[in-house]
Request: fold
Amino acid sequence: MDANTRRLEMNLVTLGTGVALLGLWTFIRISLMLFVFNDEINAIIDPQYKVATYILIFAVLTFICICQCYVGLTARGQGKGKHKTPLYLILAGIGVTLDIILTGTDIISIFTGSDHGIVRILTSVVIEATSIGCTLVMMISGIRLRKIRKGGAA
Reply:
C-alpha cells in the first residue's frame, strides 16, 4: 500500500469523524435556536399549528442529522476498507449543495440588513463553511480512493 492510499484513508477516517460530529452539532445548534428564539417563532406560527410545526422541524432535523452521521461514519468505514457503496458520496453531494444554498442566503442577509445580528450570522457562516470544506475534501478523498482501489490512477 503506497503513501497516497494511506493518506486518503486517513483523510476519510478523520474527515468522516468531523462530518458526523458536525451533523450532531447541527442538531444541537438548531434545537437551541428553536428554544432561544421561541418568541420569534411564536409570532410567525399560528398557535394551533405550533406543536405540529415543532414536530415537523424536529423530524426534518433528525433526518438531516442521521444522514450526516451516516455519511461521516460510512466515509470512516471506507477509509478502513469496510464499505464499498458510493451512496454516502451522493448524500454528501446533496448535503453540500443544500449547505451552500443556505450559507448563501445567510451571506445575502448580511447585506440586506437582517435583524438577526451580524455576529450570529457570521458565526453561522464560518461554521457552515467549515462543514462544507470538510465534506468536500472528504468527497474528493473518497472518490480518489475508490479510483485507486479499482486499479485506476487518482
About this structure: The CA atoms of residues 107 and 150 lie 40 Å apart.
